[in-house]
């Protein structure tokens, strides 16, 4: 899909708002086709990074290459290569799900916008609700539509800014499955999250952003090695509340 | 870069199609921009009109220009509201992270305002014809009237864009409509300014709506237009250029 080993390459990124420094030299790279999770508390600068990487905001210094293009020098080419699902669901509530997708397909100048919309509706399980206004959708359905809109055009690099914040467990698992499927097809995914479990479940590489810097990054195994080896203890395994909830509502508990 | 430019019109028409749908699906908007001005016209002609002396044989002829400006002024709050929602919901952010022509989203809203006002004004003129409105104006005079109305719409639309893009709350976004609603009431729209007390009269005669109403009235009644048409044009063009520059500054900063 891409000629580059690293779909995202960030070096020495800094950004201040007025005189408040938010990013103090952020470095990381994301292998093409992998899932990268950026972990951090609220206000740690995750969204600022996403905004700079998606050309919405200019950095103060440092360089960002997306799919081989510099965000500061070639923002148009970067926009051709990426797709953003922002922190808040950005669907047009007055339009139907189908109309939202057709609009995106037209804006991406695709040849058969209606077919593209139809396929994505099917893929994300929105066919039954396709012709209802998005305002009538549940939170999970809106997020799915939101993500579907980002999938229009098949951008090789996808940014998901806190995609599961505010979703119920079922909807969250649906989003996780979509992300896994995307990565399976070779798409590079950068997602931000404040849920450790989400990073653990999904990401090939995890980076922790704290006070404007990446303090650690690596695979889950690498991160685990930073801690002393696990002691063997016998603990009765209680089901988590999430497992109970999912068992009662009759959903598959595998995640 | 060239490929991007070629898509400007395509992108803008997609954006316009979207916000026109917003209007046609909002009963509230249709009532405020079309039905309310018609109701006012009925009220003034059939209830109050008998007691109003304007020196014209037919009060509908006198009233129509003012009613048209009220219809345009009523639509402004909605333009502001739609822009505010797009900024707030992250919809502009989504468009700006896509390979979409930069200001297409904003121009889409502006053209929507022009097109929707053209439709509502046509309906209002048709109702006025049923109520006995007659004009001896030729094609050129009608074109001049259409031109002035379009300029007035553009001027107010750009003013609305400033408030829609910069407002912090939804009430703030639509608050712009109130002072604008007020202008036609204290003008020559309903009664000649010569009937007003001195202070009010001075205001009425020196604010934009009076000169615009007078210019349109002269054109429609096939009377020579004096200096008022230049004053009217100067107001419209002046406000439009000023508001356009400010709106663009806010747009670049915010969206």
Automatic annotation (TrEMBL), chain A:
<keyword id="KW-0067">ATP-binding</keyword>
<keyword id="KW-0536">Nodulation</keyword>
<protein>
    <submittedName>
        <fullName>ATP-binding cassette domain-containing protein</fullName>
    </submittedName>
</protein>
<dbReference type="InterPro" id="IPR003439">
    <property type="entry name" value="ABC_transporter-like_ATP-bd"/>
</dbReference>
<dbReference type="InterPro" id="IPR050763">
    <property type="entry name" value="ABC_transporter_ATP-binding"/>
</dbReference>
<dbReference type="GO" id="GO:0005524">
    <property type="term" value="F:ATP binding"/>
</dbReference>
<keyword id="KW-0547">Nucleotide-binding</keyword>
<dbReference type="GO" id="GO:0016887">
    <property type="term" value="F:ATP hydrolysis activity"/>
</dbReference>
<dbReference type="InterPro" id="IPR017871">
    <property type="entry name" value="ABC_transporter-like_CS"/>
</dbReference>
<dbReference type="InterPro" id="IPR027417">
    <property type="entry name" value="P-loop_NTPase"/>
</dbReference>
<keyword id="KW-0813">Transport</keyword>
<dbReference type="InterPro" id="IPR003593">
    <property type="entry name" value="AAA+_ATPase"/>
</dbReference>
<dbReference type="Pfam" id="PF00005">
    <property type="entry name" value="ABC_tran"/>
</dbReference>
<comment type="similarity">
    <text>Belongs to the ABC transporter superfamily.</text>
</comment>
